[in-house]
Structures are given as structure tokens and as C-alpha cells.
């Protein structure tokens, strides 16, 4: 397996471009099943999650062509309604197939995705929404079986204990696009990735109002058609690069991202005293003297602070003066990276849903394990601020959500190498 060797070597400097958003591209790929015409998608990131989703699309009958990097032409003339476990198990987001299969085929059999180390992410709200659309839903033998022969639009409240559901909103919106009648979806997720999906659906002929708000109104149509669509920039990747600049006290310009997509995140960095320059489509982190201030953060659904930037901010807060508190309200187990940061010298304690971070930690390189996608990024960011070499194992997690990560960072001065685990010093290898 691959590992990263990262060496702290001072400030990063230069420009770095953000790629397409993983969390937008996955449901958008699924949405191509809603029509038998060709959909052309641009700015699709080259990630393992994309490859898994494309494999699933091909399995259910879609034809996929990649005329150039980042561009996919997908035609789904004849498709099946079954998405089997051996494919779906590889990626939770494949549950987004439910909506388009229900809408197009009036039935679906989709395996329930597996678990995740950052905590349970049940699909109960997806099922609730489908039932509200007058679908018959049964769970048997690890599959969700849906009979949508009598599908009908109607009022749906989609809130849960942690607020709205992003993939659940995507599924129900897609299912409703071809359902007779009008669907009024309350407590819909407002994330930019959901907005991007809705904008593409409108290009395909869907009738959706209230896009970007917690209340979406979808009027069903008989047929959707092909379109061309460019996936929005990845705000989580952008935020990760912003923190890379901040934790190294560098001068880094993150290009291709609208700052408005990162409102709560940038607000916290401003509160911490990080000097920045914000343009229409870039964020520039400026060098600074002294220490950043501590912050208290609570992760919340959009437009609140994004859970996907929680671990990265925690890495930055190890370098401030005083106590920072980060409270996780979305995924209960999303502090799996903390023991690894502690191995590097971070002073962090977990109290219930909160991480209490005592700053001014002198970090040192160590062998660490990545537990999930964003934890991988947080460990790399901490390694930039550490003395010596940090060896990060299980980086296949990172490849799910960051495209050409080490190349982009190397181009602005990071000392980061992708190596084989056999290249690690033998005394550092896991037992």
C-alpha cells in the first residue's frame, strides 16, 4: 500500500487550483440515469469514489465515455433497477442511485451501504421520503426494495436528529422530478452541492423552485433530457489548502473557488486573526507574525461550519495560544484522528462531543494512521508544522476525495512524497 512521507519545511508559497467537488459529482453522476439521452459532465475529479460510481453506472446499463480528462459523456438508454452489494459496499454515496432508479424505472433494488468509522449514517430519512412519495419500501436481505408504481408527489418533512440530510435530499429531489404532482420538500439540505445538483436537473428539464433554501418545490414532468453541466469547485479541498497556507505561515492563493461557498469557515479563520485576501474566485492566505487566536466551533448543516473541515481546523488550532473547543454535531465519532495527533505531540482531550485543544503544541514527526478521508488531510497538515518526518499510512482514504493532492502541494513548496509502505523504516511499520 501507499504511504505519505511528509517533512515540515517552512512556509508554503504559490498558487493552487481547486478541482471539482466530490460531494457534488457523485449525486450528479447518479442523476444521469434519469434520462435516456446523453449527459456531458465537466470538471469531474479523478478520484477513487468517481471510479466506483462510474463502475456502478456501467453495471446498471449506462454507457460511459471519457473524451478528455475531467469530462464524461454518459448515456443511459436501457438500464436495470438493481445495484448489487459487491459494488455498493465500496462507497456510501452509491445510495444516491435510489432516487433516479425509482423515478426512471418505478422500482429499485439497492444494497444498503456499509458502515463508516466516523459514525452511523442511516438511510432512514431516504426511506421516509420515498414512503411519503407513495412508494412501497421493504428492507430484506440487506437490500432496499422499492415499488414506485404508484409514485405521487406530496408534502415531505425531511429533518432528522442532526438536521437535514444531504444525500437524502438529493435522492428525494431526483425521485420527485418524474413523479406526478407536486412535491414540497421541507427541511431540505442547503449545501452548495445540493444546489449544483438541482441546477443540473433544471437544465435537464426538471421544474424545481426554492433552490438553495430549506424548502424545495418540485413539479413532476414526464421526461428529462440530456444536458451539459460543469461540476462546482470543491469547497472542502479549498478549505484544506487554505489551512495548509495558514499552518505553515505561508503566502498561498487558492484559485477557482468562490469565498461565499466557505462563509462559516472563513468567518472562523477571520476570528482567529488569519490575514486573508478574498477575491471573486480566489482566497489568498497571507503571512503573519505571532500566533493565531483560539476559536470555538460547532459543526452544523450548511450554512453552519462544515463537518468536513473539522479535523483540518483542529490541526491548525494545535498551533495557537490557549484553548480551542471543537464540537461535532453531525457525526458522533469524527475524532478518530485525535490519538494520531497526540502521537505527534498535540495536547487534545475529548469530552463528549467536543475536542478541547490546548495550543502551542510542539509537534514532531511520527508514524500515524489515517482513519478516514478528512482525518488523512488533517494529519498531513499537522505534519507540515511538525519537526522531522511524518509517515502517514492508509492514505487510500485520502484518494477518495483529493485529486493529485501531493502534486498540488509539492508545487507550492510542500515536502510530501507518495511511497510504498515497504519504503518505511522497518522499526516504524505497524505490527
TrEMBL record:
Q: Which GO terms fall under molecular function for this chain's record?
A: UDP-N-acetylglucosamine 1-carboxyvinyltransferase activity
Q: Which residues form the active site?
A: 116 (proton donor)
What EC number(s) is this enzyme filed under? 2.5.1.7
The family database entries (Gene3D superfamilies) matched by this protein are listed as: Enolpyruvate transferase domain (3.65.10.10)
Please list the residues that bind phosphoenolpyruvate: 22-23
Q: Where is the Enolpyruvate transferase domain?
A: 8-409
Enzyme class, spelled out: transferase
Q: Which domain of life is it from?
A: Bacteria
Q: Name the pathway.
A: Cell wall biogenesis; peptidoglycan biosynthesis
List of residues that carry 2-(S-cysteinyl)pyruvic acid O-phosphothioketal: 116
The residues listed in the UniProt record as binding UDP-N-acetyl-alpha-D-glucosamine, with positions renumbered to this chain, are 92, 121-125, 308, 330
Please tell me whether the keyword Cell division is annotated for this protein. Answer: yes
Swiss-Prot/TrEMBL keywords? Cell cycle, Cell division, Cell shape, Cell wall biogenesis/degradation, Cytoplasm, Peptidoglycan synthesis, Pyruvate, Transferase
Transferase is among the record's keywords:
yes
User: What function does this protein fulfil?
Assistant: Cell wall formation. Adds enolpyruvyl to UDP-N-acetylglucosamine.
Name the family the entry cites: Belongs to the EPSP synthase family. MurA subfamily.
Q: Quote the protein name from its UniProt record.
A: UDP-N-acetylglucosamine 1-carboxyvinyltransferase
Organism this protein belongs to: Coraliomargarita algicola
Output the lineage of the source organism.
Bacteria, Pseudomonadati, Verrucomicrobiota, Opitutia, Puniceicoccales
Amino acid at each position: 500500500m501507499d504511504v505519505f512521507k511528509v517533512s515540515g519545511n517552512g512556509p508554503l508559497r504559490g498558487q493552487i487550483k481547486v478541482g471539482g467537488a466530490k460531494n457534488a459529482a457523485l449525486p450528479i453522476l447518479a442523476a444521469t440515469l434519469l434520462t435516456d439521452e446523453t449527459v456531458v459532465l465537466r470538471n469531474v475529479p479523478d478520484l477513487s469514489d468517481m471510479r466506483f460510481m462510474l463502475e456502478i453506472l456501467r453495471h446498471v446499463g449506462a454507457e460511459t465515455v471519457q473524451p478528455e480528462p475531467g469530462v464524461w459523456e454518459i448515456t443511459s438508454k436501457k438500464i436495470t433497477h438493481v445495484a448489487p452489494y459487491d459494488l455498493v459496499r465500496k462507497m456510501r454515496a452509491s445510495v444516491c442511485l435510489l432516487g433516479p432508479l425509482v423515478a426512471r424505472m418505478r422500482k429499485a433494488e439497492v444494497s444498503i451501504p456499509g458502515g463508516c468509522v466516523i459514525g452511523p449514517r442511516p438511510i432512514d430519512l431516504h426511506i421516509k421520503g420515498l414512503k411519503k412519495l407513495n412508494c412501497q419500501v421493504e428492507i430484506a436481505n440487506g437490500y432496499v426494495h422499492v415499488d414506485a408504481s404508484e409514485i405521487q408527489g406530496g408534502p415531505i418533512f425531511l429533518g432528522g436528529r442532526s438536521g437535514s440530510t444531504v444525500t437524502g435530499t438529493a435522492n428525494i429531489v431526483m425521485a420527485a422530478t418524474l413523479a406526478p404532482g407536486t412535491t414540497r420538500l421541507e427541511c431540505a439540505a442547503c449545501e452548495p452541492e445540493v444546489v449544483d445538483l438541482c441546477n443540473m436537473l433544471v437544465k435537464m428539464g426538471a421544474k424545481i423552485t426554492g433552490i438553495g433554501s430549506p424548502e424545495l418545490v418540485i413539479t413532476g414532468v414526464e421526461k428529462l433530457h440530456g444536458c451539459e453541466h460543469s461540476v462546482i469547485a470543491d469547497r472542502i479541498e479549498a478549505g484544506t489548502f487554505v489551512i495548509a497556507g495558514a499552518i505553515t505561515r505561508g503566502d498561498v492563493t487558492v484559485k477557482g473557488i468562490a469565498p461565499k461557498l466557505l462563509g462559516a469557515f472563513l468567518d472562523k479563520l477571520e476570528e482567529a486573526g488569519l490575514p486573508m485576501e478574498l477575491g471573486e474566485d480566489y482566497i489568498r492566505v497571507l503571512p503573519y507574525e505571532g500566533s493565531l487566536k483560539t476559536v470555538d466551533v460547532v459543526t452544523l448543516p450548511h450554512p453552519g461550519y462544515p463537518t468536513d473541515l473539522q479535523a483540518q481546523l483542529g490541526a491548525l488550532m494545535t498551533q495557537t495560544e490557549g484553548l480551542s473547543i471543537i464540537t461535532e454535531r453531525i457525526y458522533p465519532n469524527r475524532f478518530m484522528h485525535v490519538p494520531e495527533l497526540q502521537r505527534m505531540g498535540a495536547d487534545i482531550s475529548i469530552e463528549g462531543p467536543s475536542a478541547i485543544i490546548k495550543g502551542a503544541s510542539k509537534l514532531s514527526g511520527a508514524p500515524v494512521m489515517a482513519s478516514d478521508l478528512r482525518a488523512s488531510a488533517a494529519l498531513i497538515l499537522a505534519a507540515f508544522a511538525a519537526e522531522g518526518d511524518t509517515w502517514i499510512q492508509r492514505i487510500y482514504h485520502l484518494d477518495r476525495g483529493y485529486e493529485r493532492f501531493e502534486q498540488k502541494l509539492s508545487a507550492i513548496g510542500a515536502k510530501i512524497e507518495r511511497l510504498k509502505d515497504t519504503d518505511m523504516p522497518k522499526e516504524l511499520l505497524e505490527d
